[in-house]
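It would be a great kindness if you could assist me with a short task in structural biology. The full record is reproduced below for your convenience:
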Amino acid sequence: HCRKLSIPLTKRPNAPPPRLPSRPPPFNNLMAKLSQLSPFKSGRTGNLPLLNSLDTSYYGPIGLGTPPQNFTVVFDTGSANLWVPSTSCRSLACQVHRRFDPALSSTHSPHHGATFDIKYGTGRVSGVMARDTLWFAGFEVPGQDFGETTAAPGPTFVSTPFDGLFGMSFPEMARTGTVPPLQRMLQSGLL
């Protein structure tokens, strides 16, 4: 039997893309809002506020780690990997975005030696694979594989309004051979 994921979208005609604050808003406020939602397995739906960037991409909040570290990610239906910048990344693109610090998470575990290198049409990211708890639309997803970006060369990701990428495609599209977040949620009975 199927359950529905409801993501409300609001179109704002001719509105410039929203500007993110230079400092992340307190994640506790976001988590307080998300904690009011219940998982699908209890018969209720989650909610995820999304921002529209010129009708070409949608991005919104996720958390990684315990306690959660907040990120804004673009939701990409054309890929299946989840990645965010790492504190060990020295590229300019990483320096101007929020970065994941594995030392601050009690549930972080590295994939010893596993790396990733993903080329997109306009840029490339590479780094190391890890596993941690994903916080997404009011759901807690333990053991989610994701990439910690250690290099994002070139100008492509410097001026983006998002920190990382949340791939929503099928597992066969995952460049790293990991289970994409939505598939992980299905396997865990959350969706």
Remarks:
- Residues 20-28, 37-42 have pLDDT under 50 and may be disordered.
- Helices lie at 27-35, 92-95, 181-187.
